Structures are given as structure tokens and as C-alpha cells.
Amino acid sequence: MNYVVLQDVIFIITLICLSIPLGIYIYKVMTGQKVFLTRLISPIEKSIYKLMGVDANNEMSAKRYAESVFVFSSLCFIAVFSIQLLQGVLPYHRIYFVVYCSLCKFC
Predict the structure, then answer these.
(1) What share of the chain is helix, strand, coil (3-state, %, to 5)?
(2) CA R_g for the chain
């Protein structure tokens, strides 16, 4: 039997076996039931909400969500654009690395 086929079969069986407990976990989290990580993560989550001034019981409106996604996407775009724009003067630029093999110059 080909090892690629065997690897694919093992992978699919693993996915099927993990999907049931993961689905139960996601269902409990989304419905607000307690899960095994609640005691560990709940205090951290509450402190972050308190630090940011967010009420955990209030839901975000569609307009507020769209604004948040737009602002976050804009900030990430500016950050990535700045990194690419300043790539020549940033440390660890590729020009400082020594190429040891002839194939690496095409990477």
C-alpha cells in the first residue's frame, strides 16, 4: 500500500475522531455553558474586559462590528505597508545574508 494513501486514511480517521469532541466543546462555548477551560480562562477574560471597558453581556451591533473590522483592517494594512516600505532599512534585511548555494538566490 502506498504510504501517501495510508497517511491520508490515517488523517481522515483522525479528523473524524476529533470532530465529535471538538463539536461538543464548540457547542458548549457558543451556548455559554461551562467547559473545562472556564476556570482557567474566565478570570483572564474578565480582566481584559475590565481593562478595555467592555461589558461582556452587551452584544455588538452590526454597524459597530463593521466599524471595528474596517479600523482593524486599515491599521493592519498601514502596518504591513510600512514594513514593506521600510524593508531596506530594517534590520535583518536579505542583502546582509550570505548566499551559500546557487539555488538560494532564487528564493
Answers:
(1) 70, 0, 30
(2) 24
Distance of alpha carbon 60 from alpha carbon 37, whole angstroms? 24
d(CA 75, CA 72) in angstroms, rounded, equals 5
User: Are residues 82 and 88 in contact, defined by beta-carbon separation less than 8 angstroms?
Assistant: no
- pLDDT band of 22, cuts 50, 70, 90: very high
pLDDT digits (tens, 9 = 90+) for 38-87: 889 889 999 999 998 888 888 889 999 999 999 999 999 999 999 888 87
CB atoms within 10 A of CB 40: 9
CA dist 63 and 69 (Å) reads 10
Domain boundaries, the chain: 1-58, 61-89
Q: Which three cell numbers stand for residue 87?
A: 524593508
Amino acid at 5: V
